[in-house]
Amino acid sequence: MMTFRYYPALFCALAIAIIYIVSLFSSISLIKICDVKKCPLCYGTDLCKTINSSEISLDFSSFEKLFNNFFSVKNVFYANYKDSGVVLKKLGQDEELAKVLTIVKTLSTSKYREFLSHSVIDSFYRKDGISVKNFHVCDLEVAEYLLEYFYEMGISLEQIWTINQVNVEPLLLQIFRHENNWPVPKYYGACGLIIMESHCGYNLNSFEGHSWTDRATIAINIINAAEDFTKTHELFSLYLTDISPDNIVVNEDLNVCFVDLENGILQMRDNETLFQNIEHLHHHRSKNFAEESYIYSPDDICTYALSDHNIYSICKLILSSKSPWPMMKGGLLHSPPQGVQDHDLFQYIELCVDADEKINRFAVIRVIVNILKELLNIKSG
């Protein structure tokens, strides 16, 4: 049995081991992780100069960041850039990337660019395509528009194709820009197979034990974000199809950020959704099935000019006390304080989940936000 007198020596040895590991890993060049030799079939090169100049340094300031950086959990690395926390992501698994390169190697030079152009459009639009199964656009017109949109931004055809094959997040972050107040990470650019985003905070589950007023504030911010993705962009509606506490992060000011955006449905907005009150529009209404089921149909959503999908998803997966596993147990608004427990707020949340054809979720969610604001005013008063 180890006696207490050995503990200082053990801790000292552990500290030395950690310092050695950190120094060893710090010496690894970030540019090697980027795998730039894969270009032009990569995500971009605009960030390579910054990485080469050593302006970005890996962050080992906490055990979580040390563990992630050393073991490259989910191919995510934490770093610092100009006194700001950033996240470096190596998108795609090795087998996915190998498959991408194999596809192109079989092409002749004359068919190369024609194939890339058609493949981008097909994989955006085709529901049964072999690539980007988790991301859809609603029609061919949107697919063609996107290709031209990104190309005019200076993203090469090879880069658009590669990103589209593996993970569309870098493209979406350039449509819904953090600089334009979208609740997404700031996109700094790419180098090889690495992209860099701002570090926006910690996943929603980290706030499970925070005060109810904090969680109510977060709930309002999440709802506002869901509405914005639906109706605020001048060109598109984005319907998120992988909403979970892991994909919503929150900072110290309780502002929210949606991360891992590769799963979604993109629809071009028409004049009807741009200039009319959406509460009065004929729109797609999501159907709720069994408590443990979360089902949606891209075809059904795309049939209408507008869908309440984002609102339904937030109510069912984030707010409801019946949120299915692996969502937060009891929902984000669990354990309400005395005086709130029997409030009709929770009835409205379940109404939002179970709404039938006669119930307008856009109207219900506004009631929920107003109730939350009133309760927060009472608590702070």
UniProtKB/TrEMBL annotation:
Residues 161-353 form the FAM69 protein-kinase domain. The chain crosses the membrane at residues 6-31. InterPro entries: DIPK2A/B, FAM69_kinase_dom, Kinase-like_dom_sf. It is found in: Secreted. One of its GO terms (cellular component) is extracellular region. Signal peptide: none annotated. Its main location: secreted. It holds the Pfam family PIP49_C. Keywords: Membrane, Secreted, Signal, Transmembrane, Transmembrane helix. Belongs to the DIPK family. This is FAM69 protein-kinase domain-containing protein. It comes from Henosepilachna vigintioctopunctata.
